[in-house]
Amino acid sequence: MTLTLLAALFVCILVVAVLYSSVGHGGASGYIALMALFALPTASIKPTALVLNILVAGIATCTYRRAGQFRWSVFWPFAVTSIPMSFVGGALQLPAIYFKPLLGAVLLFAAFRLVYRQVENPVPPSSPPQAVAAAIGMVLGFVSGLIGVGGGIFLSPLLLLFGWATPRQTAGISALFILVNSIAGLLGHVSSLGNVMHGSAWLAAAAVLGGLLGSALGSRLLPVPAILRTLSLVTFSAALKLILT
């Protein structure tokens, strides 16, 4: 990787980490989108995205939990099945001919989700039925591990749609959900760490810095609607590139 490419990726990863962590996400779909746009090797995308996701989601988890924006009763029924299934999904390696269109479809969903933002609901949120949450967690965990994301991009709209958490609580719950699933997915395919792209230490530094900034400032200063529209555009562009090439 050239110095120019590494510098460009550093800046892009920093920006994506700031934007995603400001809404409680680790940013895996954003990192995947960037790496696809930069035409990086397919084998490097999944493990690199998971490593960066773990760093940013860990920071976001600590920040939102300290702010009191977390509900254990909502989190654990999803996590108890998603964690082992993320491990299983992470152990599988799809051929590029299947991986690229599937990843493109996931990114299209992510782009659609990013333009959706529910306002604060004055009605106190309810807790999901445990059996339903466990079934959903199983599916989300497997898909997350298979693709190389933490699953928050799928869990967040469900929590908001069914009124199981407020937007702020959704950010806190999703952050920890992303963290545990990203770790499980990476453990499911530890050998893939050898494919983490060259210069990943610099990208990790960018992700950590961005995660700190985004988690601290996002809920107060950053214009969330504009952030989501920008991220959606980048993600949508990468999805089209993966599907059409």
UniProtKB/TrEMBL annotation:
Q: What main location does UniProt list?
A: membrane
Instruction: Give the lineage.
Output: Bacteria, Pseudomonadati, Thermodesulfobacteriota, Desulfuromonadia, Geobacterales
Q: Where does the record place it?
A: Cell membrane; Membrane
**Which keywords does the record carry?**
Cell membrane, Membrane, Transmembrane, Transmembrane helix
Q: GO CC terms for this protein?
A: plasma membrane
On whether Phosphoprotein is a keyword of this UniProt record, the answer is no
Cited PANTHER family: MEMBRANE TRANSPORTER PROTEIN MJ0441-RELATED (PTHR43701), MEMBRANE TRANSPORTER PROTEIN-RELATED (PTHR43701:SF5)
Family, according to the entry, reads as follows: Belongs to the 4-toluene sulfonate uptake permease (TSUP) (TC 2.A.102) family.
The transmembrane segments are 31-60, 72-92, 137-165, 171-190, 202-220
Family matches, as InterPro entries: TM_pro_TauE-like (IPR002781), TSUP/Inactive_protease-like (IPR051598)
Species, as recorded: Geomonas terrae
Q: Which domain of life is it from?
A: Bacteria
One Pfam entry name:
TauE
Q: What is this protein called?
A: Probable membrane transporter protein
Topology with respect to the bilayer = Multi-pass membrane protein
